[in-house]
Amino acid sequence: MATVDEFLDVSPAHRSSRKGCEIDMRVVELNDCINGGHLLVFGAITDGCLVRLHSRCLYGDVLGFEDCDCGPELEAAIDCIQGEGAGVLVYLEQEGRGAGLMNKARGLGLGQRLGLDTFESYRCLGLVEDSRDYKVAAVALAGIGLRRIRLMTNNPDKVAALQEAAVEVDVVPLHTEPRSEAARHYLTAKRVKRHHLLPE
User: What pLDDT is stored for residue 1 in this prediction?
Assistant: First the structure.
């Protein structure tokens, strides 16, 4: 069983309720001002446990907006972890694929006015399509003793970052049904332009 007691700043174990069930969890802080965030460690993790790397999306995760797949992916991942009784959610402060909330909002507005996807609108604004880095998360997972994980993702960049940190990765696709036409177009853009492992 991996331990998080001596890795960075760790909260005491506590129990939380979700969807009628309780699960033990701890929080590990990732102190990086650009690609940091938190590990939420659920239950007694072991090698081969489920892991989700998730970048913060205020619109989808919190407000429930239906223009992206972020909220449904997060919920599906936590459902899977809770179903197994153990796993790790790496929640990274990388709003707008690392561009920040204001740039994300600017990109969405420009895209809606000009009929562009968010990757195209970011380029028009002089931004990188995706500036996220997962090295901090990869090192943190290795730091809590995980050498092999089942990663719930469609993003090959996340897989590559973990493999570069000597973490063995089994990919668990995380497909959700688009809740709007905007979400459908966004998923298509991610598949075509960023090579996400998504069905056509």
Answer: 46
pLDDT of the residue at 109? 97
Q: Is 170 a residue of the active site?
A: no
| Shared domain check, 119 and 67 | no
Answer yes or no: are the C-beta atoms of 199 and 101 closer than 8 Å. no
Catalytic residue among 130, 170, 184, 194: 130
Identify which of 164, 189, 195 has the alpha carbon closest to the alpha carbon of residue 69. Answer: 189
Of 131, 152, 182, the residue that ends a domain is 131
- The answer as to whether 1 is a domain residue is no
Active-site choice (26, 97, 132, 150):
132
Q: Which of 53, 61, 74 is nearest to 137 (CA)?
A: 53
> 194 catalytic, yes or no?
no
Q: How confident is the model at residue 77 (pLDDT cuts 50, 70, 90)?
A: very high
Asked whether residue 21 falls in the same domain as residue 63, the answer is: yes
The CATH number that applies at residue 13 is 3.40.50.10990
